[in-house]
TrEMBL record:
SMART domains reported in the protein's UniProt record: HNHc (SM00507)
Organismal lineage: Bacteria, Pseudomonadati, Pseudomonadota, Alphaproteobacteria, Rhodobacterales
InterPro entries (alphabetical): HNH_nuc (IPR003615), Multihaem_cyt_sf (IPR036280)
Signal peptide (residue range): none
Top-rank lineage group of the source organism: Bacteria
Domain HNH nuclease: 41-93
Protein name as catalogued: HNH nuclease domain-containing protein
Organism from which the protein derives: Celeribacter baekdonensis
């Protein structure tokens, strides 16, 4: 295992190679080639974009391109470059721990233990950090369709048209970092206040109760959410 960090500057040669990989992926999808062929092109692009090392632990051994949102759960995201992250065998196995079959969409999200929204949030977070630190942040390199982003919003209880700022990758992270809307409203209602139906987002208002005082005495704090 190695922890050597790749250069934060994308050279012209590397950019050209990465763009060629992206073009091959797009051509395969637009030509409606076999699913296996498109997935192979997608995997090749994701692994090269991520510097041929695990984005989580930086190992360079036994690498795979992992779908953050499972392709059996959301087929529309299976070729989106922003839905891919390079993981080593160990990290990939951890990501797929639990139920890994075709989900029953009539059940609540993650009722079968396969979606793991907290894990998806974490993977989008470290992929976003990696893109910024390595100078790879580009919508084409980390693309997520409006359909995919809308689906993630619905998972969290928001209207598909709810506004989230930032790049598409940043939006995916922010959507999943939000407390689920109905749960948030229930907790707020039980304590006599409301956040409305808009996302809190970084810099939003949080209400913090001091356990040592009467719960009716709440303090309103401005809080900036940071990625963990």
């Amino acid at each position: 295992m190695t922890t050597k960090s790749p250069s934060s500057v994308l050279s012209d040669a590397k950019r050209s190679s990465l763009n060629a990989r992206l073009a091959m992926l797009r051509n395969a999808v637009s030509a409606e080639r076999s699913r296996a062929s498109c997935l192979r092109r997608w995997s090749e692009f994701v692994r090269e974009r991520d510097g041929f090392r695990c984005v989580d632990c930086h190992s360079q051994e036994r690498l795979s391109a992992h779908h953050i949102c499972r392709k059996t759960f959301l087929g529309a995201a299976q070729f989106d470059t922003g839905n891919g992250i390079t993981l080593c065998r160990t990290c990939h196995r951890e990501a797929h721990a639990g139920f890994n079959g075709r989900p029953d969409m009539s059940l609540p999200v993650d009722a079968q233990g396969g979606e793991k929204l907290a894990s998806m949030e974490r993977l989008y977070s470290i992929l976003l950090d990696d893109a910024i630190e390595r100078g790879r942040m580009c919508e084409e390199y980390y693309f997520l369709s409006d359909e995919v982003l809308g689906f993630l919003k619905v998972l969290q209880g928001f209207d598909p048209k709810t506004y989230f700022p930032g790049s598409r990758l940043e939006r995916a992270y922010l959507i999943l970092a939000e407390p689920e809307l109905q749960m948030r409203q229930a907790i707020a209602g039980a304590n006599g206040f409301s956040f409305g139906d808009q996302p809190l987002l970084p810099g939003g208002v949080m209400i913090v109760f001091d356990d040592e005082k009467d719960r009716s005495q709440s303090s309103i704090l401005q809080a900036r959410w940071g990625r963990l």
